[in-house]
Write a structure and sequence with these properties.
The complex is a heterodimer of chains A (198) and B (293). The longest helix of chain A is centred in the C-terminal third of the chain and has 14 residues, at 178-191. Chain A is of the alpha/beta class and 198 residues long. Chain A has helices spanning 13-22, 49-55, 62-71, 79-84, 178-191; strands spanning 3-7, 26-30, 41-44, 74-77, 101-104, 115-121, 124-133, 138-142, 147-152, 155-160, 164-167. Chain A starts with a strand and ends in a 7-residue tail after the last helix. With 293 residues, chain B is of the alpha/beta class. Chain B is 43% helix and 12% strand. Chain B has helices at 6-15, 27-36, 48-54, 63-72, 86-94, 131-139, 157-174, 181-188, 192-201, 217-225, 235-238, 243-255, 260-267; strands at 2-3, 20-24, 40-43, 77-82, 99-103, 124-128, 144-147, 208-209, 231-233. In chain B, strands 8-7-6-5-4-3-2-9 form an eight-stranded parallel sheet. The chains are: A alpha/beta (198), B alpha/beta (293). Chains A and B meet through helix 1, helix 2 and strand 6 of A and strand 1, helix 1, helix 2 and helix 12 of B. Strand 6 (115-121) of chain A pairs antiparallel with strand 1 of chain B, so a sheet runs across the interface.
């Protein structure tokens, strides 16, 4: 059984938890450092990256999450992707720099520029994925090691490295579970040591 | 690509869950709020307690002050328009406000009709005292609902009343037979399709936040435990003797609303909360919650 945590200091964590449960995963809400114990993987949800940064150091530290994420799969969506990547150049946000991508926060403008778009997933290209972008970040310079699993408007929107998965949109807000299932598959492969390289 | 769909509007409300939205009147307060961990700020010229004290007509804030606040923070910025004043809402959308609060805190512009919010690309939040009022606003296109409470008082009693009313009515609907739903819709004064949705799903179709009278970390926890998914704090922070410390404490109290040890820890050492006004002593005509229907 795969046990996946969802960081729950703020944001859309409940939607991620139900998406994982719908895929048959064992889910734990993570608010305290002890909650990370014996988890196989973690989701960093959408929300406000400044708020999450502010809450690090209270009941769960940046360092706890960083240590956990160094050796286990992590999926970051929107604000969670910002935390996972680098390049925000903003003291209000403390990034892990684990996913090799320069991320620009809130790159499309105010909420009236938020949008939905049907995108194509490289691992299942025939059925479009209805992607919801909310004050979304943009991946500006993806590292050479990254695999691009989906793009929109000339920018990658779903990327993967050996351990990590990152989306600038919100797969937890729709009922299509393909991306959560893909993450669970990745966790299983890593846990079983089958996945040697990205 | 489509913008301004209902899904996109509710999406932002989803991202604000488990957070605190703080009223701010200038750039300095906005920075304090963001630094304390607010998920959003509500930019307005006068906080509700001062609107009460000041009297006169309370209108949409000057776009210039809203824009200055927007420049200063990276979190979403909300602003209020008067109930029914769609021209104020058009201006707020034009300048790029992230969420509009069609608010009873301002003097209503229309005593019959609320704004037809489906005409807008920007999402709206509206206040309610009960489920019927919540569903009428959602029927007009609101993407987030909050309790009205009694703004500017620092008295939690009305917010509790409104949240208990909404949650109780949802629980009752969930137990009704299908044949009873039309009568329920009639009694609630709410669109049948939304009544049916609530009966089937046991919750509102949009996020449900608390507002109106929250002044302490314990107030925030109380509202979350009663079913709120986030809290708005209006006068409670910047009318207290220790805005920064109180703002941080309320943020932590919302994340850990079920943990009394955290609540005790963050409540220690706070200075005086806003002195406040007992909502029960307000003359009927001064109650803001009665504005709108």
């Amino acid at each position: 059984m795969i046990k996946t945590g969802v960081l729950a200091v703020q944001g859309a964590f409940a939607r991620h938890a139900s998406a994982l449960e719908a895929c048959g995963a064992d889910v734990r809400i993570v608010k305290y450092r002890e909650d990370l114990e014996d988890l196989d993987a973690l989701i960093l949800p959408g929300g406000e990256s400044t708020t999450m940064t502010r809450l690090f150091g209270f009941r769960i530290d940046y360092e706890d999450l960083y240590r956990f994420a160094q050796s286990r799969p992590v999926f970051g969506t929107c604000a969670g992707l910002i935390l996972l990547g680098h390049g925000a150049h903003d003291p209000r946000v403390r990034q892990f720099s684990l996913l090799d991508a320069d991320i620009t926060r809130n790159a499309y403008g105010s909420q009236k520029e938020s949008f939905v778009e049907d995108i194509s997933l490289s691992f299942d290209p025939d059925t479009p994925f209805h992607a919801v972008f909310i004050r979304a970040p943009r991946i500006d310079r993806p590292g050479a090691e990254l695999r691009i699993l989906a793009s929109s408007g000339g920018h990658p929107v779903l990327v993967e490295s050996q351990l990590y998965l990152g989306a600038t949109f919100h797969p937890e807000l729709t009922e299509d579970r393909r991306i959560h299932r893909y993450f669970i598959q990745k966790i299983k492969e890593i846990k079983n040591g089958k996945k040697q390289s990205a | 690509m489509k913008k301004g769909t209902f899904e996109v509007k509710v999406g932002l409300a989803e991202m604000l869950k488990g957070g605190v939205i703080m009223d701010v009147t200038n750039v300095e307060q906005a920075k304090i709020a963001e630094d304390a961990g607010a998920v959003s700020v509500m930019a307005l010229e006068r906080i509700p307690a001062d609107i009460r004290a000041h009297g006169g007509i309370a209108r949409m804030s000057n776009p210039e002050m809203i824009l200055k606040i927007r420049e200063a923070v990276s979190i979403p910025v909300m602003a209020k328009c008067r109930i029914g004043h769609f021209a104020e809402a058009q201006i707020l959308q034009e300048i790029g406000v992230d969420f509009i609060d069609e608010s009873e805190v301002l003097t209503p512009a229309d005593e019959e009709n609320h704004i037809w919010k489906k005409d807008f690309r920007v999402p709206f939040v509206c206040g309610c005292r009960n489920l019927g009022e919540a569903l009428r606003r959602i029927g007009e296109g609101a993407a987030m609902i909050r309790t009205k409470g009694e703004p500017g008082t620092g008295d939690i009693v009305e917010a509790v009343r409104h949240m208990r009313m909404v949650m109780g009515e949802i629980r009752r609907l969930a137990n009704l037979d299908r044949a009873e739903l039309m009568a329920a819709a009639k009694n609630l004064g709410a669109p049948f399709e939304l009544v049916e949705w609530v009966a089937q799903n046991g919750k509102l179709p949009v996020p449900n936040f608390a507002a109106g009278g929250i002044a302490t970390p314990a107030d925030a926890s109380l509202m979350m435990q009663l079913g709120a998914e986030s809290v708005f704090v209006g006068s409670g922070i910047f009318k207290s003797d220790d805005p920064q410390q109180r703002a941080e404490a309320i943020v932590k109290a919302v994340t850990h609303y079920q943990d009394p040890a955290v609540l005790a820890e963050v409540s220690k050492g706070l200075k005086d909360a806003m002195s406040g006004l007992a909502a029960a002593t307000l003359p009927e005509e001064e109650k803001m919650a009665k504005r709108g229907w």
